[in-house]
Amino acid sequence: MGLRGSMSPEQLKLFESQGFIVIESFAGAEEIDGMRQRMDELLEGFDCSTASVFSSKNQKQLTDNHFYESAEKISFFFEEKALDDDGNLKQAKQLSINKVGHALHEHDPVFKKFAQSEAISRLLVSLQYKRPVIIQSMYIFKQPGIGGEVVPHQDNSFLYTEPPSCTGLWLALEDANITNGCLWAIPGSHKNGLVRRFIRDDIGVHFDNPSPSYDRADFVPVEVKAGSLVVIHGDLIHQSFENQSPKSRHALSFHVVDTDGYVWSPDNWLKREVDPEPLYVS
Questions:
Q1: Cα–Cα dist 281/248, whole Å
Q2: Whole-number pLDDT of residue 2
């Protein structure tokens, strides 16, 4: 392969200690503008009737084909508060979308280029991935005034391999702060292991255990500038609150798992007809 890792020993030590790390200026202004402009084009062209609502609080509503089929498509999901009592949009679709996922990195050339960039691969080499695949991608909008809360969770719950191998890569496409719904995390919580699994079976999708109670005082805000990448351990407890500000908080999220010596769990919600291509093989 010939790639060398990009993270320094100090960065790796910090990541191992707190379960996340911020890499500033990971993406340049031109890259960010290109991805935001491309998403504007995708939003302009999509049919509102092909979208459904997404909520991290109400996972049972996700048991529909639109959600399941999004694993290998570019699919659109509205915010809960974007619809009135009759199911109609209260405002323009561009201001009503919660996220677009989950295969942007495979089907759109702009997002595919970034996903397959040397910078991403070098980062994963640092984390000792041998045959990494991006198993899902999401463009998250965190809309002004209605951007929904994402409840405390661990990425390994949703994208489980045996043994666990998920890492989240969260790129800020706009400045993210306390006001507009930045990430919050419990430093070191990844050391306590996986709390519960999000399982898909004959009755739909559900968690195998109830959510623990978390003390809000244990969370720290992860405020970042546009272009910063937050690298998130799969067992880290993290969340984000509602965006009640007049400013959006766009972000691009990839989730990576290893496929060399790791087995994708058959009861994950995300099931694919075609296996994803690895970013590299070492």
A1: 37
A2: 63
Q: Which of 181, 185, 183 is nearest to 249 (CA)?
A: 181
Contacts of residue 8, Cβ cutoff 8 Å, sequence gap at least 6:
none
106, amino acid identity: E
Question: How far, in Å, CA of 167 to CA of 161, rounded?
Answer: 11
* Token pair belonging to 172: 């800020």
Per-residue confidence (pLDDT) for residue 186, from 0 to 100: 98
Q: Where are the beta strands (DSSP E) in the chain?
A: 20-23, 52-53, 74-78, 97-102, 132-140, 150-153, 161-162, 167-172, 183-185, 198-201, 204-207, 220-222, 229-233, 238-240, 251-258, 263-264
Instruction: Answer positive or negative: Cα dihedral of 97, 23, 131, 19.
Output: negative
Rounded to whole angstroms, how far apart are CA atoms 87 and 165?
Answer: 39
Q: Do you know the residue count of the chain?
A: 282
Phi/psi of residue 115, nearest 5 degrees: -60, -35
Nearest alpha-carbon partner for 250 in 51, 95, 120: 95
Instruction: Return all residues near 45 (Cβ < 8 A) that are at least 6 apart.
Output: none
Q: Which two tokens stand for residue 103?
A: 């295969």
Q: What is the DSSP string of 93-127?
A: GGGTEEEEEE-HHHH-HHHHHHHTSHHHHHHHHHT
Instruction: Please tell me whether residue 151 adopts helix, strand or coil conformation.
Output: strand
Whole-model pTM? 0.94
On the question of a cis peptide bond just before residue 163, with omega within 30 degrees of 0, the verdict is yes
pLDDT digits (tens, 9 = 90+) for 241-281: 999 999 999 999 999 999 999 999 999 999 999 999 999 99
Question: Side chain identity at 246, as an amino acid letter?
Answer: P
